[in-house]
Write a structure and sequence with these properties.
There is one protein chain. The chain is α/β, with parallel strands linked by helices and about 280 residues long. The chain is about 45% helix and about 15% strand. Strands 1, 2, 3, 4, 5, 6, 7 and 8 form an eight-stranded mixed beta sheet that branches. Strand 3 and strand 4 form a beta hairpin. The relative contact order is 0.19.
Length: about 280
C-alpha cells in the first residue's frame, strides 16, 4: 500500500503546512510520495530532505528583507518573491538545502505548475533539487500578475494553483492512501476573483491560462467539496487549520510567522493518533 501526501499552496499560509510537516517528521511519519503546489512545493521539499525547522528558520531570518519578498521587488522585476534570492541564493548558500538527503530518500516529490500555452497542469517529478528542479518549484509558485511565468525548456509555466490547486486526483492515481494538508479552514470557500478585470489585461497573451483563472474559484470550491466527500468515505485524511490563519501574502511580523507555524505544528500533534491509525497497513 503506497502512502501519499498532498500539499496545498497559499503563500505565507504555507507556514501552517511547514508546522505540520515538521511535527510529522519528528514522529517519523513516512510517505511513498508527495505532491506540492506553490508554497506546498517550496516548503514541502523539506520533507524529503528531512530538514526539520528549515522553512520556519529562513522565513524568520528574511522576513522584511526586500530581496526575499516585497512590492519593491515586484515593481522592479515583476516577481513579488525574489526569483534568484528565494529559489537559488537561499538554498545554495544562505540556508543550504540538503540535496544529498533529498536524492537518497526514496520518497517521490512532485511539483505542480500550469503550462502557459495550454492552461493544463504539469506534474514534474523532482530528482535532485538542483538548479532546474528549483526552477520547477519556482514555476509552481509563480502566481499570475504577482510573478512572471518561468521559462523551462522553451515553454512558460505559471503557478500550479491555477490548474490544480489541491492535486488530490493526481495523488489518488499514484498512491493508495492520501493525507492532505490544506491552508484554509473546513468552512472556507473561495469568493469571486477581485483581480479579474486586471488579470484579463495582464494575461491576454495566455488565453488558456485566462480561461482557468476565470473559473478558478468554482474549480477550487468543487475540489474542496470532493475532498470532503472522500474524507467522509474514509479514503483521505485531511489536516486543515482550525480557523482562518490571518497572515499576509508578504509577512514581516515574526511573531505572526511563528504563530501560524505553531498552529500547524500543534494541529498535527492533536491529530497524530488518528493519522497513524489511518496510515496503518491493512492485514
Amino acid at each position: 500500500m503506497k502512502k501519499g501526501l498532498v500539499l496545498e499552496g497559499g503563500a505565507m499560509r504555507g507556514l501552517f503546512t511547514a508546522g505540520v510537516i515538521d511535527a510529522l517528521l519528528e514522529h517519523n511519519i513516512e510517505f511513498d510520495g508527495a505532491v506540492g503546489v506553490s508554497a506546498g512545493a517550496a516548503f514541502g521539499v523539506n520533507y524529503k530532505s528531512k530538514q526539520i525547522g528549515r522553512s520556519l528558520r529562513y522565513n524568520l531570518r528574511f522576513a522584511g528583507n526586500p530581496r526575499y519578498a516585497s512590492w519593491k521587488s515586484w515593481l522592479r522585476s515583476g516577481n513579488l518573491y525574489g526569483a534568484n534570492f528565494c529559489y537559488h541564493l537561499i538554498p545554495d548558500e544562505l540556508d543550504k538545502f540538503d540535496k544529498k538527503e533529498f536524492i537518497q530518500n526514496p520518497m517521490e516529490f512532485w511539483s505542480v505548475s500550469t503550462d502557459a500555452s495550454t492552461g493544463e497542469a504539469n506534474y514534474h517529478l523532482l530528482t535532485d533539487c538542483g538548479y532546474l528542479d528549483l526552477e520547477w518549484v519556482r514555476a509552481s509558485a509563480s502566481i499570475p500578475f504577482f510573478a512572471n511565468p518561468v521559462a523551462i525548456h522553451g515553454h512558460f509555466y505559471f503557478d500550479g494553483g491555477v490548474s490544480d490547486s489541491i492535486p488530490i486526483r493526481f495523488a489518488q492515481k499514484h498512491y493508495d492512501k492520501n493525507v492532505i494538508i490544506t491552508t484554509q479552514p473546513k468552512e472556507y470557500r473561495k469568493a469571486a476573483d477581485r483581480l479579474w478585470p486586471i488579470e484579463k489585461i495582464v494575461l491576454r497573451k495566455y488565453p488558456n491560462v485566462l480561461k482557468k483563472v476565470k473559473t478558478r474559484s468554482q474549480d477550487y470550491n468543487n475540489c474542496l467539496d470532493y475532498i470532503e466527500k472522500e474524507e467522509i468515505a474514509g479514503s483521505v485524511f485531511v489536516i486543515r487549520p482550525p480557523e482562518a490563519l490571518d497572515i499576509g501574502t508578504i509577512e514581516t511580523n515574526k511573531d505572526n510567522i511563528k504563530r501560524v507555524y505553531n498552529i500547524g505544528y500543534y494541529e498535527a500533534e492533536r491529530q497524530l493518533e488518528k493519522l497513524v491509525e489511518f496510515l496503518r497497513e491493512e492485514d
